[in-house]
């Protein structure tokens, strides 16, 4: 007689977020706007507001401020006792390494695992959920903290030359953290991660005059967008995000119409509309903060999840689907969680 050993249940039990500074209105960028071939592209329709990281504010500072919500609700001892720390920073303060070690020190943690993820991009939170679940199931710990910081808006996109371009007005800064534990409180029911290596490297930096990012020069760093690239990214994003969400639905036996809350990354309004239409979900079940926060990159999913929970968009027992894609479409991921309510 065979004995079936069931895997431990892993839950996303809480999330908390932080937005730096006061909201910055669209008129801030309007005063700098110059003629730009991409100015009218749907990809760059500006949000009403966004937040910018302060000049002396680091990714570690942002995560520490986001983590305060978890500490208030769960106790400092829960955070200090975290076994696994997983981080993602959009623009690392030092190019050669992530913020994991500094975050661990700032939050008083002595984790056995510290992992800095760089490839997850706008879907980094879901990738980190997948990593956390696998590590905890392996027996390497009982708790994990996921920390994501988006800090490129006020540092990269607000450079004097870059802020004149169409792309500059869309990004916003923010940070969020998620607490993952071995428990059945808010079980992670399924995760799908897909890498599309054929598109790796298609998101490029385009300083003028051209140079490597580490070489001295006068050209400011910005993203190299063209009409052709944008068309391809729109097509990939429209296809990839519903595909991974539907793959999770199929695996766990969930009908898309039974998703209570869809939370995605938020590059622009076009993607947001197309994704919910592809999943046949009404707008009131797809929460976003695009007009308040802009494109939050990797922080978008956890920031939106935190604000949706705080705003009463999902009750205990609700089915939450998180989904997003990264860069020019080289990665996409989705995760389903049965939300168990805040501690």
TrEMBL record:
<dbReference type="Pfam" id="PF08541">
    <property type="entry name" value="ACP_syn_III_C"/>
</dbReference>
<feature type="domain" description="Beta-ketoacyl-[acyl-carrier-protein] synthase III C-terminal">
    <location>
        <begin position="249"/>
        <end position="339"/>
    </location>
</feature>
<dbReference type="GO" id="GO:0004315">
    <property type="term" value="F:3-oxoacyl-[acyl-carrier-protein] synthase activity"/>
</dbReference>
<dbReference type="InterPro" id="IPR013747">
    <property type="entry name" value="ACP_syn_III_C"/>
</dbReference>
<dbReference type="GO" id="GO:0044550">
    <property type="term" value="P:secondary metabolite biosynthetic process"/>
</dbReference>
<dbReference type="InterPro" id="IPR016039">
    <property type="entry name" value="Thiolase-like"/>
</dbReference>
<dbReference type="InterPro" id="IPR013751">
    <property type="entry name" value="ACP_syn_III_N"/>
</dbReference>
<keyword id="KW-0808">Transferase</keyword>
<dbReference type="Pfam" id="PF08545">
    <property type="entry name" value="ACP_syn_III"/>
</dbReference>
<keyword id="KW-0012">Acyltransferase</keyword>
<protein>
    <submittedName>
        <fullName>3-oxoacyl-ACP synthase</fullName>
    </submittedName>
</protein>
<feature type="domain" description="Beta-ketoacyl-[acyl-carrier-protein] synthase III N-terminal">
    <location>
        <begin position="119"/>
        <end position="197"/>
    </location>
</feature>
<dbReference type="GO" id="GO:0006633">
    <property type="term" value="P:fatty acid biosynthetic process"/>
</dbReference>
């Amino acid at each position: 007689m065979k004995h079936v050993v069931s895997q431990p249940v892993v839950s996303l039990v809480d999330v908390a977020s932080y937005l730096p500074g006061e909201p910055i209105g669209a008129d801030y960028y309007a005063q700098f706007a110059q003629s730009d071939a991409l100015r009218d592209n749907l990809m760059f329709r500006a949000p009403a507001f966004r937040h910018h990281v302060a000049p002396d504010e680091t990714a570690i500072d942002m995560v520490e401020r986001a983590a305060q919500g978890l500490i208030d609700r769960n106790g400092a001892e829960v955070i200090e006792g975290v076994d696994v720390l997983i981080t993602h920073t959009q623009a690392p303060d030092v190019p050669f390494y992530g913020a994991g070690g500094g975050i661990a020190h700032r939050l008083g943690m002595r984790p056995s695992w510290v992992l800095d993820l760089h490839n997850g991009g706008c879907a980094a939170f879901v990738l980190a959920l997948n990593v956390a679940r696998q590590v905890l199931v392996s027996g390497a710990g009982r708790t994990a903290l996921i920390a994501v910081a988006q800090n490129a808006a006020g540092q990269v996109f607000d450079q004097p030359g870059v802020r004149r371009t169409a792309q500059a007005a869309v990004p916003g800064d923010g940070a969020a953290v998620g607490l993952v534990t071995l428990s059945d409180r808010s079980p992670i029911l399924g995760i799908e991660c897909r890498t599309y290596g054929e598109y790796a490297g298609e998101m490029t930096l385009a300083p003028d005059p051209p140079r490597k990012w580490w070489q001295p020069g006068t050209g400011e760093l910005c993203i190299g967008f063209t009409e052709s690239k944008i068309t391809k990214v729109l097509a990939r994003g429209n296809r990839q995000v519903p595909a991974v969400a539907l793959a999770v639905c199929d695996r766990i036996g969930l009908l898309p119409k039974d998703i209570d809350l869809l939370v995605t990354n938020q590059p622009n309004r076009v993607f947001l509309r197309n994704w919910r239409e592809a999943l046949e979900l009404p707008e009131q079940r797809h929460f976003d903060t695009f007009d308040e926060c802009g494109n939050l990159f990797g922080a978008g999913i956890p920031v939106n999840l935190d604000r949706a929970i705080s705003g009463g968009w999902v009750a205990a027992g609700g089915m939450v689907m998180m989904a997003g894609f990264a860069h020019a479409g080289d990665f996409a991921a989705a995760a389903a969680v049965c939300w168990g309510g805040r501690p």
